[in-house]
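Allow me, if you will, to draw on your knowledge of protein folds for a short while. I have a record of one protein: its chain in single-letter code and its fold written as discrete structure tokens. I remain grateful for any guidance, and I place the record below:
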Amino acid sequence: VADNGIGFEQKYTDRIFKLFQRLHSRSDYEGTGIGLAVCAKIAEYHGGFITANSTPGEGATFIVTLPVHQIAMETQPS
């Protein structure tokens, strides 16, 4: 997912996925600081992870990686 928002410095990448962490004050930008933490937990729950790349003033790109599990079909006796 890519946006054209305010972006952030790469040194804060680990911080943005922690619950209630914000890089700016509430008077500067709205938000609770839980959105990306929830996304990271969902990805983790499914055996995956989320990464982010950003440049201040140019937006950010978030990549969610989930494993692909092969499901063997069981044959039913006839």
Remarks:
- The two ends are 47 Å apart (CA to CA).
- The first helix runs from residue 35 to 45.
